[in-house]
Every structure is written in structure tokens, then in C-alpha cells.
Design goal:
By secondary structure, the chain is of the alpha/beta class. It folds into two domains: about 260 residues, Purple Acid Phosphatase, chain A, domain 2; about 120 residues, no CATH class. The strands form five sheets. It has a six-stranded mixed β-sheet with strand order 6-5-4-1-15-16. The chain is elongated. GO terms for molecular function: 3'-5' exonuclease activity; endonuclease activity. Keywords: DNA recombination, DNA replication, Endonuclease, Exonuclease, Hydrolase, Nuclease. InterPro entries: Calcineurin-like_PHP (IPR004843), DNA_Repair-Maintenance_Comp (IPR050535), Metallo-depent_PP-like (IPR029052), Mre11_N (IPR041796), SbcD (IPR004593), SbcD_C (IPR026843). This is Nuclease SbcCD subunit D. It comes from Streptomyces niveus.
């Protein structure tokens, strides 16, 4: 049995205010083309199809096109809902869509009802475990505890009971959306901590031939049988060093695993650069990053004038600006006082706006508002001094 394991599409998400819909459409094209080129028997999507519970219409339209293309290609597809998805909305029409070979598993109560596909060696049961929010599913599973491990263990007990009732030799694949211990996180996943504990042990999946995980955005194999596909696109600069892929998995007659990574299209490379503004603007070694999306960390002891505007001249796709001044052992309070020396209230306020916005200072209208506020305070203070 050959299948593609992917997850965390996050349709509708942007990257630092840059829309990614075209890149996500290219991903769908790539997914369908890869499925056909490698003659896969199934496509698995392990949650976070959308980026939020109520996605924008453009994301819904893209999802609809993806389902139609997979159905027209006659590639059976199993999808589960993740913690970003609205399980109820994603699962609308699931019963009808089943007949087209698109199997949406968003109802926790149906986690032990597999999609059964057959190859030359027999049956493979695909169990879809949607994201299990403990507070919402604890009663359904009569879980012994209140955390993710308790509810996921209870769900897997149901899976194992169903598998045990099937004929010998039935192989098993579980799709799950969870934070499994040993996995490396990035900045772009939403925290799913409950009661201070978010990770579940990989051993919770013992006895399953392959576990297709979603949630963490870096592709990684926790064991031979337990793997994250990672997100097919980068959604934070913490993913700069990620290689974005899908897993192409061959499941042998006895449950043997042969997996390889298939690269996903990259809309634009990411780069993190660090140094003084002058160094970043002049360093010839950074030429290779001039077409990348950039996160720049400036180490100038004193904030330079118009840093974002100057960076964009060389790096037109600079999206994030961070200030981390290198002042050595200089006294912070004294240094701050020196940096303010000779600067007007207006200039200090504009610097603050730029700081909290990652380098984007106020526009003309906002400067006018700030100026008016300071003028009002000055007049009010003068009146109080005269009358007071």
C-alpha cells in the first residue's frame, strides 16, 4: 500500500501579512501531480486543513477545488480536523462525500470506524483521530484523566479493539493531530497545552503499523512508524532551516515501512540576517538573500534612522525587523538616557511605534494624530500652570 502523508495546510494563512493563497494553490497542484506520478493508493491529511475555524471564502474555494481534483483523479483521501479547524464545519457533508472517495474524519465518536482500502496483500484500515480537545471529548471516551494523553489513550483503545476484531493480517494506519514527545516545535503552531502538559508519549501508538501525525510544522520521524509530515509551507521565520516535504510511504505485506520525503514547492526562500544596518547593507555575502523573505535583527547600539526603508532598498522582501542592540556592559539606564538626549517627544513616540510594529513607523496621518496629542498636552499643562 502506497500513500502520501501530509498535514497542516493552514489554508487562508498569511506570512507576515503576505498572502499565501497562490502558494497554497500551487501546493494543491503539486499534491495531485505527485499522487498521480507515484501512483499512490491514498492521500492522508493529518489535520489543520484551514488556519482558523471560520476560514475566508478564498480558502474554502481552494479546499473545494482540492477535493474535486482528488476525487476526479480517483485517489482515495482521508482527512482529519486539527486544532485550527472547526471540526463541525469541516465535516459537513462527510457522509455524502465518502461516496466520492474523500473521507473526512472529524467526529471523535467515529474514530474506531476505519476507511478500509485493499491492496494485493489484503486490507489496510485507516483510522482518523481528529484533534481531541480533552474538555470536549472526555465524557465521550470516559477517559481516566483530563489531559491529552488520557483521551488519546482511550481513543486508541477503541482503535485496537476494532482492529482485533478484523481478520488476521489487517494492517493499520492512524492519523492523529497531537504534540508527541520528542517532536521539535516551531513558532507557528498554536499551543495545545492543557493543565501544563501538552506532549503525549510516542509509545501510546504501539501496535499501529504507521502513524501519520499533524500539528508540528517540521518534518520528522520520531520512530520508524511515527512521523510528522510537517507543514508544506513555512509559516514563521523559525522554519527558515526546514525542508518542506511530504512523506511517500510504502507499507509492506507484513507492516514493513519504506518512506521517503517528496519536496514541496517553495514560493520564496526565508532568511534571517543579523548585524548592524551598515553591515547588512554592504556585506557581499548576503547577496544570495536579496530575493528572500527577510527577518533582519539590527544590533546597532543606537537605533538608526529609517531602518526598514533602507533595508528594503537592498532586500525588497524584508518582512520583519527586530532590534537587539549590542551595547556590551554599558549601563542600560544611562544608555537609554543618552539615546533620548536631544530628541523631541514626537521623535521618541514615533520610535516607539516603529519598535512595536517591527520597524514600520507611523504614516503621515498617525504622525498628525501624535503631534495633535502632544500639542493638546502642552496647552493643557500651560493652562494649568497659569490657573493653578
Amino acid at each position: 500500500m502506497r500513500f502520501l502523508h501530509t498535514s497542516d495546510w493552514h489554508l487562508g494563512r498569511s506570512f507576515h501579512r503576505v498572502g499565501l493563497l497562490d502558494a497554497q494553490a500551487a501546493l494543491v497542484d503539486h499534491l495531485v501531480a505527485t499522487a498521480l506520478a507515484h501512483e499512490v493508493d491514498a492521500v492522508l491529511v493529518a489535520g489543520d486543513v484551514y488556519d482558523r475555524a471560520v476560514p475566508p471564502l478564498s480558502a474554502v474555494e481552494l479546499f473545494d477545488r482540492a477535493l474535486h481534483r482528488l476525487a476526479e483523479a480517483r485517489v482515495p483521501t482521508v482527512m482529519i480536523s486539527g486544532n485550527h479547524d472547526s471540526a463541525r464545519r469541516l465535516g459537513v457533508g462527510a457522509g455524502l462525500i465518502d461516496h466520492a472517495g474523500i473521507h473526512l474524519r472529524t467526529d471523535p465518536a467515529r474514530c474506531a470506524t476505519p476507511v478500509v482500502l485493499r491492496d494485493a496483500h489484503g486490507d489496510v484500515a485507516f483510522y482518523g483521530l481528529p484533534y481531541l480537545e480533552p474538555a470536549l471529548v472526555r465524557d465521550e471516551f470516559k477517559a481516566a484523566g483530563t489531559g491529552h494523553e488520557a483521551v488519546l489513550s482511550a481513543a486508541l483503545d477503541r482503535v485496537r479493539a476494532d482492529l482485533a476484531a478484523r481478520h488476521a493480517g489487517t494492517r493499520s494506519v492512524v492519523l492523529a493531530h497531537a504534540f508527541v514527545a520528542g517532536g521539535a516545535a516551531s513558532d507557528s503552531e498554536r499551543d495545545i497545552t492543557v493543565g501544563g502538559v501538552s506532549a503525549v508519549p510516542a509509545g501510546i501508538f504501539d501496535g499501529v503499523d504507521y502513524v501519520a501525525l499533524g500539528h508540528l510544522h517540521g518534518s520528522q520521524a520520531l520512530t520508524e512508524r511515527v512521523r510528522y509530515s510537517g507543514s508544506p509551507l513555512a509559516y514563521s521565520f523559525s522554519e527558515t532551516d526546514h525542508r518542506k516535504t511530504m512523506w511517500l510511504v510504502d507499507l509492506g505485506a507484513g507492516g514493513e515501512i519504506d518512506a521517503e520525503r517528496i519536496d514541496c514547492p517553495v514560493p520564496r526562500p526565508l532568511a534571517r540576517v543579523r548585524g548592524t544596518l551598515a553591515d547588512l547593507l554592504d556585506d557581499p555575502a548576503l547577496t544570495r538573500h536579496e530575493r528572500s523573505w527577510i527577518e533582519a535583527t539590527l544590533t546597532d547600539p543606537v537605533r538608526p534612522a529609517e531602518p526598514m526603508a533602507r533595508l528594503v532598498e537592498r532586500f525588497p522582501h524584508t518582512l520583519s525587523l527586530v532590534f537587539d542592540p549590542d551595547r556590551g556592559d554599558e549601563d542600560v539606564v544611562a544608555s537609554y538616557a543618552r539615546r533620548l538626549e536631544g530628541r523631541s517627544d514626537q521623535e521618541i513616540a514615533e520610535d516607539f511605534v516603529a519598535h512595536v510594529r517591527g520597524g514600520a513607523g507611523p504614516d503621515d496621518r498617525e504622525r498628525t494624530v501624535l503631534r495633535g496629542a502632544f500639542d493638546h498636552v502642552r496647552v493643557d499643562t500651560a493652562v494649568r500652570e497659569v490657573t493653578g
